[in-house]
Amino acid sequence: MQSPDTALYDVIIAGAGPVGLFLACELRLAGSSVLVLEKAPEPHSPLKGLPFGLRGLSVPTIESLDRRDLLNELTRRAVGRDTPAAAHWMQQQRRPGGHFAGIQFFHDQIDSTRWPYRLPGPIGSIAADMASIEAVLAIRAETLGVEIRRGCGVQSLPQSDDSVTVETADGMARGRWLVGCDGGRSTVRKAAGIGFVGTDPEFTGYSVQAELADPAALEPGRHYTASGMYTYAAPGTIAMVDFDGGMAHRTEPKRDQIEVVLRKVSGLDVTLTSLLLATTWTDRACQATGYRKGRVLLAGDAAHIHSPLGGQGLNLGLGDAMNLGWKLAATIRGDAPADLLDTFSAERHPVGAQILDWSRAQVALMRPSRSSRALEAIIRDLIDTRDGATYFAERVWGISLRYDLGDTHPLVGRSVPEFTFADGTRPAELLRTGQGLLLDFDVRPSLKALARRWTGRINYVAGDAGNRFGVTALLVRPDGIVAWVSEQAPHLDDAARAAMRWFGAPEASDCR
Ligand SMILES: Cc1cc2nc3c(=O)[nH]c(=O)nc-3n(C[C@H](O)[C@H](O)[C@H](O)COP(=O)(O)OP(=O)(O)OC[C@H]3O[C@@H](n4cnc5c(N)ncnc54)[C@H](O)[C@@H]3O)c2cc1C
């Protein structure tokens, strides 16, 4: 490892998980030098492959990957459809759209006309394995020039006013900023003294691959029982939760113990002849009290943990990275508005809190109690209605995501719709440089002249688009979030104010 005075990186990222790698790509795309320090000596783990590594990706994640031209590569590589669990879902007559505490909602009941500010584009969810997600992101990061050092866990981080020195087992590195993307047990979060508050676990969850003496003894599918819940995909993939207060998570799962828990949860006399792979998790739900302290920031599981039920953690973390990358890079370049970096925590902390509550609500429904079974019956009825399925899809798919940017226009704070220009170009393609966009549907020279003052930060694109929701012009942030819209001939002062709000002062002071 280099001595601290030989290299000063703009950003050091602790953790080469999906969030650390995606953030590294974002920062490098926007011109920052980035060093990623990863504790594990090599990226491979059986838990990142199938079946346990399977992750559902939400609409904001799919859109983000599309906006950075990573989606095609990921869907080409990902192997999410071939698992026994996926096969079970695919064989159902109605197409499932997702679930809440295991209770499915179906595509045939989702009313997408309730989302008037969305145009056809990536929707619903796709699944991909963690190994593929990390591989695609690591390749992109290295192609962009990110340095990744594996087997280099961050141990401590003395901060000064203008930099952070990171100490690892075999040396030091220095960065202007440090971002902890080092998972739920984050060393960075603890060393920075950032609080982590929330609720204690009620259960231990198990993901198990085993050989069963009689694979037909368990019925495939998800089952609520008097003492927990289990899901079985033949011949030996099992997920189960045992309401033990999270006790078993503290020890490595063994065959005998798993057999005991499976018998308890299923109420059946099941025998495991061998244990192939097992991991445990809990429903502990905690969130960092703040996402920034001095020159240290947090993203992903380092900032928030909750039960994996409903598959939201990765999506939440990738959303953090997409929100943080361009803001931190602009701060480092020196062209960001003074409070831009503060908007990271202001926008993402409430989103995290909402997801934590979503996971807590699912736990409440799964408790092996009579009141939870009664609640489950009500949710089953509601989810099987048009209103219900649409509501759950909106929440699970991430369609309801909207930041409060202080403007009541329904497009502001939301993901830019998939407007299609006459030549077929979409905003997702235009965002691939990592710059913001000024979309001018009425092709006005004055707007073009204004955008020129932010050359390199805002890409001006003019032309008519099919459905434009009555809008004449929009300013879109590099993360694809609409920052400003005009419904009439745009007022240039308003447009300039909006550009300054998100992209800082222009090159020349006169922006008319
Ligand atoms: C069974 C299960 C199923 C799940 N299913 C879904 C799903 O369907 N959808 C979804 O969105 N989410 C899901 N999740 C959650 C998702 O996997 C996590 O939220 C996601 O992996 C978080 O990414 P991350 O990069 O923040 O952290 P991690 O993936 O934990 O990566 C952190 C990295 O930091 C490294 N590290 C740790 N300490 C240090 C250190 N001191 N210095 C340097 N490096 C360090 C680690 O080795 C690791 O590589 C699931 C989780 C589980 C357990």
From TrEMBL:
Cofactors, names only: FAD
Membrane-spanning ranges: none
Keyword hit for Transferase: no
Pfam families: FAD_binding_3, Rng_hyd_C
All copies of domain FAD-binding, residue ranges: 9-359
GO molecular function terms attached to this record: monooxygenase activity
Keyword Flavoprotein (UniProt): yes
Keywords in alphabetical order: FAD, Flavoprotein, Monooxygenase, Oxidoreductase
InterPro entries listed in its UniProt record: FAD-bd, FAD/NAD-bd_sf, RIFMO-like
Protein name: FAD-dependent monooxygenase
Species annotation: Bradyrhizobium diversitatis
